[in-house]
């Protein structure tokens, strides 16, 4: 008698024992067989150390005992066979093991080969663009949908931009949007160490990213009315929010621009593998209401000293990240080189619970675009401010976003593209993801709409 086929799980969380991974387990357990309508019926957790993954599962399930129906799979990014076996047993892999330029490609490649869907929480442009360049065609052939940046980087920015853009109804037209990220905590703000490590390695690999971009066809640019906005200064003291702000070299900017390039090529969005007529009509209507715009991201603070700490960190990473000894120092002493904003031990549970974020989208454009351009007016005369807000970004918002993206995949897979490598906005924009996030701790709201003199 032939041995039984291995069980295929709805979701496998890889990198489950990491700082973020254990929070992703905790979030996923909330939806495991939570109701008769829950699409998450089976779950497995995975990593290279069975003991560490088991400890993470116990932590995530506490104070209850760990569920017996959540098995532990052992897989390592240095062992392609183990990743192939993992991907063969998953409908959706949630990839949480970073830095992703070191560990993420092997996971995505295994999923592309097996035809499994893969969502990750990367905020690393070089990794994301390399996966797109190398795995889009293989994934499209096998029906594997690979979507990076399914955490705080970059779903709040993507859905926030789409939400903002759709507020500009004709004859008004959007020209530019600046997103202001404001982090707050009643205790101490401690960043995700993976974000810090990714920034250090990003500097080291900046040349590779530029070479990759030069080797690929230039993405199409969307048609945006009027001239582009002025670049402005590095630090901003005057803005509609009344805060200090500084330009942020964020993955959010790259991801939003990739989505707008895809929309330029596919004005009605990407058709689903077997989408219903109702969803096809909804998809087309949704994308027809989205207006492209110049987009940038800034970090905002009520304290100029907070921005000085960011500058301090950026200078050190820029100076030391280009040679191996400097990188080793940066990675060994993150708390010193980041002025206390990152530490290897990560934040305490109390620090995580005390933190939250707000992300304002300040858009400028024309109240009547045809009239303005006809009269030769280049200066925008309309301002709209929208806001996305939610809990702590790295360990609460990111798991919420990642798990909700997975639930959309499980419940609405036929309405989504058959396979390929895409941004979150491209795949999830027309779905009910925004509504799901609002039901699980995030909010989307319009703050101000006004005509300027």
Q: What percent strand?
A: 15-25%
Helix content estimate: 40-55%
Instruction: Count the DSSP helices.
Output: 18
Oligomerization category of the chains in this entry: single chain
- What's the arrangement of strands in the largest beta sheet? 3-2-1-4-5-6-13
Total strand count, please?
14
Mean pLDDT score: 91
Spatial separation of the terminal alpha carbons: 81 Å
Protein name: Saccharopine dehydrogenase NADP binding domain-containing protein
InterPro entries: NAD(P)-bd_dom_sf, Saccharopine_DH-like_oxidrdct, Sacchrp_dh_NADP-bd
GO cellular component, one term: lipid droplet
Biased composition (Pro residues): 220-231
Describe this structure in words.
Residues 11-146 form the Saccharopine dehydrogenase NADP binding domain. Residues 220-231 have a biased composition (Pro residues). With 453 residues, the protein is an alpha/beta fold. It has two domains: 9-147, NAD(P)-binding Rossmann-like Domain (Rossmann fold, 3-Layer(aba) Sandwich), CATH 3.40.50.720; 155-393 and 443-451. The protein has helices at residues 19-29, 50-61, 80-87, 100-114, 125-142, 155-165, 193-204, 206-215, 251-265, 277-288, 304-320, 324-332, 334-337, 349-354, 369-374, 393-412, 424-428, 433-438, and strands at 9-14, 43-47, 72-74, 90-95, 117-120, 145-147, 173-185, 235-236, 244-247, 294-301, 355-366, 382-391, 420-422, 443-451. The strands form two sheets. Strands 3-2-1-4-5-6-13 form a seven-stranded parallel β-sheet, with helices on both faces. Strands 8-9-10-7-11-12-14 form a seven-stranded mixed β-sheet. Strand 1 (9-14), helix 1 and strand 2 form a beta-alpha-beta unit. The longest helix is centred in the last third of the chain and has 20 residues, at 393-412. The model has no long low-confidence stretch (mean pLDDT 91).
